[in-house]
């Protein structure tokens, strides 16, 4: 059994947690390979909602081991809160089930302070980050000044690393941004406590994954964020600071591409985005509220991590073609099809008009993207509520046609359609 990868195809929040939970049933390990607690993944079981930020969405399946892989950045305070919350709800999050790769990087209050100061200094050009310290933690990793989780196993090395870290951060915070300095002693005491609790969770992540794969077990890599938030292949600079795409799963877990079987692209039946940056099919006013909802339903389009209303728009096929190509997707999971029920017709962006030309691919530079105008094709809508549908043949004709249109326009099959947040609310299409 191989490595299967779940990838967000748009700007995040496609429903990765939902399909990860569904597919985790057959996995030995579910592993996060990139990002940190900027992610917010929702798993809904029997009307109970679990919102996960760092712990992989396989955790609700008792037999599955969950790994926070090397490529992630981990705020230990958030991880411990998540462990405690899940334990209080009866989920086993002991070190036999949850593992933290020693090579994962730590997020400190210094990274969070830097994220806030940097966003403030950008003014109107702010990225709209989640303020979780993600960018500064990856910056330190690339500068070879980061703190790895393995420090939790060595209290002296941790204390020394934190001292150097606080000195560097204070120089930047006070000297560069005119902010208040951090207190090194306070941070040292705080992290000594985290180390005591988290040391038992430490493992050699790549070794753990390799052992499972060599024993013929399936490993499920759970993407965070989405293809258009990828630092290389997204709408730079309005991206996150890691590689949520399929390549990121290789470096983030420490496995090679020969192990990979399925690369599953998760796409919402429309498009959403949180934070700043271009969005060709974005809607405003009443039309936007129709897709976003008003916040009453748990699945309405408000950020799982920050609570911000998500920007919404129609489905964009150039984006899906881009995601298919960058990740060599084997298939689609199309989520939230139920939200489109009741629309008389559904516009889908099939291509862009760029400087008087029709283009089908997503432009690689932001300046071109800003000049792109969506070209829409309208598909017929359907009236019926489809949240209870479980077989393709029970879908209204127009809904089946919508799904087939996505598959045909991207040359990639749709294997699952999701029609609600619940574990059982999937239609297996093939
Ligand atoms: P992720 O970050 O990709 O895991 O997605 P989020 O959890 O941030 O956002 C997806 C939201 O949509 C969550 O509230 C899910 O419970 C919900 N959801 C997922 N699939 C469906 C679906 O098919 N229909 C509806 N109505 N909600 C869904
Ligand atoms: P999941 O895994 C949606 C966005 C932020 C911001 C940009 C950079 O739930 O899909 P960062 O804090 O990462 O430096 O912010 O990326 N962003 C997300 N948007 N879903 C996410 O995660 C996101 N993680 C980061 O809103 O625009
Ligand atoms: Mg999310």
Characterization of this structure:
This protein has 12 helices and 19 strands. The chain has helices at residues 16-24, 76-88, 109-122, 134-142, 155-177, 184-198, 205-214, 246-253, 285-292, 317-327, 366-371, 397-410, and strands at residues 3-8, 29-32, 41-45, 48-52, 65-68, 73-74, 98-101, 105-106, 202-203, 219-222, 260-268, 271-273, 311-313, 331-335, 345-354, 357-359, 373-380, 414-418, 426-428. The structure holds guanosine-5'-diphosphate (GDP), 6-O-phosphoryl inosine monophosphate and magnesium ion. Guanosine-5'-diphosphate (GDP) binds next to α1 and β3.
Name the descriptors:
10-stranded mixed β-sheet; 430 residues; 3-stranded antiparallel β-sheet; alpha/beta; binds guanosine-5'-diphosphate; binds 6-O-phosphoryl inosine monophosphate; binds magnesium ion
């Amino acid at each position: 059994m191989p490595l299967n990868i779940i990838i967000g195809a748009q700007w995040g929040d496609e429903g990765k947690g939902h399909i990860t939970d569904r597919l985790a049933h057959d996995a030995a390990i579910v592993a996060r390979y990139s990002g940190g607690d900027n992610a917010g993944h929702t798993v809904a079981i029997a009307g109970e909602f679990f919102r996960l930020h760092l712990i992989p969405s396989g955790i609700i399946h008792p037999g599955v081991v969950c790994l926070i892989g090397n490529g992630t950045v981990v705020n230990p305070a958030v991880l411990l809160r998540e462990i405690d919350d899940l334990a209080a709800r009866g989920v086993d999050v002991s070190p036999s089930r949850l593992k933290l790769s020693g090579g994962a990087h730590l997020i400190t209050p210094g990274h969070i302070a830097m994220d806030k100061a940097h966003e403030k200094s950008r003014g109107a050009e702010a990225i709209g980050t989640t303020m979780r310290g993600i960018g500064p933690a990856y910056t330190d990793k690339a500068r070879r000044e980061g703190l790895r989780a393995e420090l939790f196993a060595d209290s002296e090395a941790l204390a020394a690393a934190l001292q150097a870290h606080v000195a560097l951060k204070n120089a930047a915070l006070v000297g560069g941004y005119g902010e208040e300095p951090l207190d090194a002693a306070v941070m040292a005491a705080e992290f000594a406590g985290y180390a005591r609790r988290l040391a038992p969770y430490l493992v050699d992540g790549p070794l753990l994954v390799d052992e499972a794969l060599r024993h013929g077990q399936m490993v499920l890599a759970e993407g965070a964020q989405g293809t258009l938030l990828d630092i290389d292949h997204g709408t730079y600079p309005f991206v996150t600071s890691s590689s949520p795409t399929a390549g990121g799963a290789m470096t983030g877990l420490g496995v090679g591409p020969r192990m990979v079987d399925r690369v599953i692209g998760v796409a919402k039946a429309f498009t959403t985005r949180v934070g700043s940056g271009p969005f060709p099919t974005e809607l405003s006013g009443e039309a936007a509220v129709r897709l976003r909802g008003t916040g009453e339903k748990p699945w309405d389009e408000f950020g799982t991590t920050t609570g911000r209303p998500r920007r919404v728009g129609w489905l964009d096929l150039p984006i899906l073609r881009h995601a298919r190509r960058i990740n060599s997707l084997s298939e689609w999971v199309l989520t939230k099809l139920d939200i489109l029920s009741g629309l008389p017709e559904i516009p889908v962006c099939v291509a862009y008009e760029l400087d008087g030309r029709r283009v089908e691919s997503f432009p690689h530079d932001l300046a071109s993207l800003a000049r792109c105008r969506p070209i829409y094709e309208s598909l017929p809508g359907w009236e019926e509520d489809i949240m209870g549908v479980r077989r393709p043949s029970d879908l209204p004709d127009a809904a089946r046609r919508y799904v087939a249109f996505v598959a045909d326009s991207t040359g990639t099959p749709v294997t699952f359609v999701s029609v609600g947040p619940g574990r059982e609310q999937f239609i297996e299409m093939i």
